[in-house]
TrEMBL record:
A GO term, aspect molecular function: transmembrane transporter activity
GO BP terms, alphabetized: amino acid transport
Main location per the UniProt record: membrane
Organism: Phaeovulum vinaykumarii
GO CC terms in record: ATP-binding cassette (ABC) transporter complex
Subcellular localization, as worded in the UniProt entry: Cell inner membrane; Cell membrane
Protein known as: Arginine/ornithine transport system permease protein
InterPro entries linked: AA_ABC_transptr_permease_3TM, ArtM/GltK/GlnP/TcyL/YhdX-like, MetI-like, MetI-like_sf
Chain ranges passing through the membrane: 24-50, 62-83, 103-121, 170-189, 201-224
Keywords from the UniProt entry: Cell inner membrane, Cell membrane, Membrane, Transmembrane, Transmembrane helix, Transport
All copies of domain ABC transmembrane type-1, residue ranges: 26-224
Family matches, as PROSITE patterns: ABC_TM1 (PS50928)
Superkingdom, taxonomy of origin: Bacteria
Length: 252
């Protein structure tokens, strides 16, 4: 075994010795990613409805929000919240400073939530607008009000059709969570940087982090593939008797 490990250019024993820290990094990464996606999704639903309905007041406000958040890097947004807000005396004296805005974890969660909410808003807006006209007309013909149509017809249909695109947003958010390592949080990349810095290594920490991200993304893609098969089954092409080749009649 020692002879085999000697041919590997990585210090596997050192990685294994500190793998408990990587487990903590995985927990930190998933914690921030899942919570930001959950909170961002809850914020995105009413904003997407406002954008799709072209509300005269809310639509311009939501459009400005999504334009700014999607037009600036997540790193800049995180720095503005973590480093920028502390420059104001009123913020440091407010009740939000001590429990929330002075904490790197909370600042990262706020930045990630606002960022993914902007992307998810536009994603859902497109899905709502692209709802088949026949579904909307059928809901109107059966006496559904606008609120009832949105709750029972349009939103469920939009959620299902947005699943493939939303899987990309989940992966992008996971990759974007590496920003947390720049504000002292020990996520997966943060632990990798710590390992390299502590033992003067070049590759071990980063390669281990890359493999962990790869495994998480693989699990995410498998989960969303199962969700698509379950909830988008009605959109798949099914072979009918009309599609099947005609059976030749027997000759006498």
């Amino acid at each position: 075994m020692e002879t085999f490990l000697s041919y590997i250019p990585l210090d596997i024993a050192l990685i294994a010795e500190n793998f408990d820290r990587f487990f903590y990094g995985v927990w930190m990464t998933l914690n921030l990613t899942v919570l930001s996606l959950l909170l961002g999704g809850l914020l995105a639903i009413p904003m997407a409805i406002a954008r799709a309905s072209r509300h005269p007041v809310l639509n311009p406000m939501v459009w400005s929000y999504t334009y700014v958040l999607r037009g600036t890097p997540l790193l800049v947004q995180t720095y503005l919240i973590y480093y920028g807000l502390g420059q104001f005396e009123t913020v440091r004296q407010s009740w939000l400073w001590d429990p929330i805005l002075s904490s790197a974890w909370w600042c990262a969660l706020i930045a990630f939530t606002l960022n993914t909410a902007a992307y998810t808003t536009e994603l859902l807006r497109g899905a709502i607008v692209d709802t088949p006209t026949g579904e909307v007309e059928a809901a109107i013909a059966t006496g559904h009000s606008y609120r009832s149509r949105m709750r029972r017809i349009i939103l469920p249909s939009a959620f299902r059709r947005a699943i493939p695109a939303y899987s990309n947003e989940v992966i992008f958010m996971l990759h974007g969570s590496v920003v947390a390592s720049t504000i002292t949080l020990q996520d997966i990349l943060g632990v990798g940087r710590w390992l390299n810095g502590r033992y003067y290594l070049a590759y071990e920490g980063f390669i281990t982090a890359a493999l962990l991200y790869f495994l998480i993304v693989f699990a995410i893609t498998r989960v969303f593939r199962w969700i698509e098969r379950r909830y988008l089954r009605h959109l798949t092409r099914r072979e009918t008797t009309m599609d099947a080749p005609a059976t030749p009649e027997p000759t006498r």
